[in-house]
Amino acid sequence: MFDRRLIKFFDWGLLGLTFLIGFLGLAILYSAVMAGDPGPQKILCIKQLIWYSAGLIVMVLSFLFNYKLLGKWAYAIYLICIILLIAVLFFGTYAGGARRWLILGPVSVQPSEIVKIAVIIILARYYSKHAHTSGLTLRELVTPLIFTLIPFVLIVNQPDLGTAILLILIAGSMTVFVKIEKRSYIYITAFCSILIPAIWFLLKEYQKQRILTFLNPDLDPLGAGYHIIQSKIAVGSGMIFGKGFLQGTQNMLDFLPEQHTDFIFSVLAEEWGFVGSLVVLLFFLLLVVRGLTIAYGCRDTFGTILAGGITIFIFWQIVINIGMVMGLMPVVGVPLPFISYGGSSIITVMICIGILMNISMRRFLVE
Amino acid sequence: MGKYLKTADSDWFKQRLIVVMYCVIVVFVVLICRLFYLQVIEGEELRRLSENNCIRLQGIDPPRGLIYDRNGILLVDNRPSFDLSIILKDAKPINNTIEKLSEYIKTTPDDLMSKIKECKGISIYKPFLLKRDIGRDALAVINAHKYELPGVEVNVGPKRNYINKRTASHLIGYLSKINSDELKSGKYPECAIGDFIGKFGVEKAYGGYLRGKPGGRQVEVNATGQIVRTLRTVDARPGHNIYLTIDLKLQQKAEKLLEGTAGAVAAMDPATGEILALASSPSFDQNSFVNGMSHKQWNTLVSNRFRPMENKVVQGEYPPASVYKIVTAIAGLEEGIINKDTIFYCQGHYKFGDRDFQCWKKTGHGNVDVVRALAESCDIFFYQVGQKVGIDRLAWYAKACGLGSATGINLDYEASGLVPTAAWKKRRTGVAWQQGETLSVAIGQGYNLVSPLQILVLTSAVANGGIRYKPLILKTIETAEGEIISDDSFHTKKEITGKLPASRQTLEIVKKGLWQAVNTGKGTATIASIDGIDISGKTGTAQVVGRKQDETSDEQVVASHLKSHAWFVAFAPSEDPKIAVSVIVEHGMHGSSTAAPIARELIKTYLSSSRVVE
C-alpha cells in the first residue's frame, strides 16, 4: 500500500522554510502585541500558537491523500465553500461595519479565506481539461468567470473589497498563466473599456468617493491616508539595522489600528531595520520560488496548474500586504501570510503548504 | 488554424513557469527597492518624525445645526468654547505642569490628577480633555504662560447654546455626553467617548441631521507638543439647520401662563397638524446639561415631585374627565341612541343599580338636550348615553377618536393612554366589568387615561371637520448653506392619521355644544370668552385617583396632591379655526377657573399677532 518513494520525495526544504517563517512571524507578533500596554492583547500570542498547531495538523491532512482527489472533489469543495459564504451573509457576526465571520462552536472562521483555495482547485481542474497551446477562447472563459464571480459577489456584499480583489487577482493570474487567445484579449479589452465607464456612471457619489479613496489614500487624510503616513514613518524609522526587538515606538497602540494584523510588517521593519526586513523578504521569495519549482517538477497538468495557482495566491498576499505597508498599494485588508495574527489566515496558508507538499511528493506518479 | 488545437503538456507549462519566475523576481526587486528607499534614503528623516511621534491627528468638531422657530427666530445656536486638553506624553514633568496649570485655572492639582487617573487606558499621545469651556480669561493666562506648560493645549470647539433659558426645553431637548451603553448600541457609529449627542426632544429625534460631519487635521508637532505645521486639513461639515413649527412668542406666552404650576399646554394648527406651542411645566435649563451637571443637581431634577424632566404634553397620562363627553356625545349620536332633540332629565343625581351617581351640579340641570349637556357639562345626561351605548362600543369610538394609541409625533416616550374595555379589565384584574363602571367612563373618569397631545388632536379634529392629523414639530430642514432639503423621514408633511367616527351633522351638534359652553350664560367656560374672538371649548375636572368620590366635595379642604386636575380644550375662531389648544393644570381643581383662562390668553395672543392674519 504505502509507497516508500513518498518519503524519499518529501519536501523537507519547504517544511523547513515554513517553520522558519512561522517562528519569525510569532516573534514579530509578540513584539507587536507587547508594545505599550500589553494586558488583554497578550493572549493573542498564545492563540496564534494554537492556530499554528492546528495549522500543522491541517497541513499534514492536506498531503496524506493523493492531490488528484482534490480535482475529483473540486465541485463538492467549491459548493461547501459557497454555502459557507452564503451562511455568512445571513448568520455572520457583524463587526467593524462588515459581516465576515461565522461562529462555529468555540471558533469563528472567515469563509472568504478558505474559498480562495476552492476557487484555485476548481479553476485548476477546469484549465487542466481545456488548456491548449493556442490559448483559451472567449467561450472557454465563460465557465471560469462564473466560478470566480459567484464568490466575488458574495464577498463584496460582506463587504470585504480587499479579499474580493485578491480573488480576482488570483483567478486572473491563473488564467493568464494557462494562456488566453490573442483574439480573446482584444474582446476583453474592448468589453472592459465600455463596461467600466458605464459602471462608474451608475455608481452613487459616495461609492465613487470610496473607490477613489481606495486607489488614492491621500484623499482620506484622517483615515487611510493617515495610516499610510504612520506606516511609512514606522518602516523608514527602522533605518538599516532597526531599533531592536521590542524597541519599536511607532507600533505603540493607536497609531496603527491593525498593527498586529494587516500592518504587522511595519513592526518588523521598524525593529529589525532594512537588514531584517530584507531577510524576511528573501525568505518569502524563496518560498514562492519553491512553490513554482514544485509546479515545474510536476508532470501532470492538474498538479502543475494547482501548484502554480497556490503559489500565485501566496505571492499576491505578500506583495499586496507589504506594498500597502510601504505605501505602494491601496489600503486593503489582506493579511501577511505566516505573520499577521488570525486563525483563518494561518489555516489557509498551512493548507496551501500542505497541498504544495502533496504535489511535490507525488511528482513521480505519472499515469 | 481552424480546429487544430495542441493540448498543453507539462513541457509547454515549464516554459510559461520560467516567465512567471522572472515576473516574481522583478516584483520582489521592486519591493526591496522601496524598502531601501524608505529605510536607507529617507530613513533619517522618517526616524526623526518617529522620535516624538510627530505626525498627529486633531479632530475638528462640526458646528451643530441651528434651531429656529416657525418665523425664523433663532432658538438654539453654538458659541465658541475653549476646551483645555493635555497630551501626557509631552507634559513632562507631569507634576510640575499640572501644578502650574491648576494655578491658572483655579483648581487644585489633586482635582486634575484624579481626573487623569479616572480615565484608564487613555493614550498618552492623544489630547485628553481636562476642562471644557475655561473661558476667555483663563485662556489668556494659559496662552501667556504657554512656554511653561508643555503638552497643554486649548482648542476652540462649538458649544451648544440654548438662547432662551427654559423655553421649549421639553420640545427642543438637550445635548449630553454619550454614555457607554449608547456607544455600544451601534446607533452612533461616528461618536467617541466624550462626544455630545442629543438625549431628548428634537435634539435627539433629528440628531442625525443636526450633527454634521467631523473633520480633522494632520499636524506635525515638536518635542514639546507645539504644532510646527499643519500638513492636511479636512473641514468639518456643519449640521443641517432646523425650523420648528412652534411660534416663539406663543410658546413664551404659554410658559408664562403655566408658571408656578405643574401642567402642560399645547397648541396646534387644526388645518395642518403643526404644533404651534408645546409647553410643559415646570421646565429645566438645557444649558446645565451641556455644561455638565453634578450628581446632586441631576438628582434634584429627577426627584422633583413636579417632574420637570417629563414632557407632560406627550408623556403625561391623565383621566380626560368631562372633555371625554365629546366622545360620548359622538357615540350616542352616531349609534342613534340620541338625536339633537333627545332630552334627559337631570335632578342632580342618577340611580343605577344600588349606587347613586352624582351630577357635579347638585341641584340638577333639569331637562337637557345634547347641546346643553355639553355646554353645561351635565353628568346625568352622559351617564345615560354611556350606559345605553355600552362600554365596548364606547371604547370603539374613543379609539376611532385617536385615544388609546400614540399620535405619532416624532418625540420619544410618547404615552398611548388607555381606553378601557370589558375584555381589558378581565384580562388585567380578573374581575368582570361592572355596568356602573361604564357610567364613570362615559364622563371620562374610571380607567380612562389620555395625554394632553391626544386630546389636542381630538379637539383639532372637531374643529377642522373631523380629520385627525399627525402632530408635526418640524417645518423645514435646510443645509448650512440654506438649501432646503426634503425627505419623507423628516415628518414635515401634513399627514392624516384618521377621521373622527362622526357625520357632519354630529360634528355640528358637538361644535354647537362647545360654542355654547363658552358663549352662553350657563356654559361652564364663559370665563374663556373674549370680545372680538369667537372661541369654542370644553372644560374638564379630573378627579385624582386615591380619593373617594363622595368623601368631600369641598375642594378647598382636600390636600393639594389630591386636588383635581383642571382641563380645558378650545379652538378659535369657531368658524374656520386657526388654532386648537389643550391645557391641563395638575391639581388645578376646576377646568373653568384655572385652565380656561390660560387657553383664552393663548388664543388671544396668537390671533392678535399680525402673522396669522397674513
How much of the sequence of chain B is in beta strands? 15-25%
Major β-sheet annotation of chain B: 7 strands, mixed
Mean pLDDT of chain B: 87
Distance between the termini of chain B: 87 Å
Intertermini distance of chain A: 17 Å
What is the correct CATH architecture of the largest domain in chain B? 3-Layer(aba) Sandwich
Rg over C-alpha atoms of chain A, rounded to the nearest angstrom: 21 Å
The number of helical runs of chain A is 14
CATH H level of the largest domain in chain B: which superfamily? DD-peptidase/beta-lactamase superfamily
Which stretches of chain A are poorly predicted, pLDDT < 50 over at least 5 residues? none
Count structural domains of chain A.
2
Shape of chain A: globular
Order of helices and strands of chain A: HHHHHEEEHHHHHHHHH
What oligomeric state is this? heterodimer
CATH topology of the largest domain in chain B: Beta-lactamase
Number of domains of chain B: 2
Question: Which structural class fits the helix and strand makeup of chain B?
Answer: alpha+beta
Shape label of chain B: elongated
State the secondary-structure class of chain A.
mainly alpha
Reading side by side through the largest sheet of chain A, how are the strands ordered? 1-2-3
Query: What is the arithmetic mean of pLDDT of chain A?
Result: 86
Explain this structure:
The complex is a heterodimer of chains A (367) and B (614). Chain A is mainly alpha-helical and 367 residues long. Chain A has 2 domains: 1-64 and 220-367, no CATH class; 73-202. In chain A, 69% of the residues lie in helices and 4% in strands. Chain A has 14 helices and 3 strands. Chain A has helices at residues 5-8, 12-34, 43-64, 68-72, 74-91, 111-130, 138-156, 161-177, 182-202, 205-215, 224-237, 264-297, 301-325, 343-361, and strands spanning 93-95, 98-104, 107-109. Chain A has a 3-stranded antiparallel β-sheet with strand order 1-2-3, covered by helices on one side. The longest helix of chain A has 34 residues, at 264-297. The model of chain A has no long low-confidence stretch (mean pLDDT 86). Chain B has 2 domains: 56-119 and 128-244, Alpha-Beta Complex (Penicillin-binding protein 2a (Domain 2)); 248-283 and 310-613, DD-peptidase/beta-lactamase superfamily (Beta-lactamase), CATH 3.40.710. With 614 residues, chain B is of the alpha+beta class. Helices cover 36% and strands 20% of the residues of chain B. In chain B, α14 packs across α16 (379-389) and α16 (379-389) crosses α19. The longest helix of chain B has 32 residues, at 10-41. In chain B, strands 2, 3, 4, 5, 10, 18 and 19 form a 7-stranded mixed β-sheet that branches. A 5-stranded antiparallel β-sheet of chain B has the order 12-11-23-22-21, with helices on both faces. Chain B is elongated, with a radius of gyration of 34 Å. Chains A and B meet through α11, α12 and α13 of A and α1, α2, β8 and β9 of B.
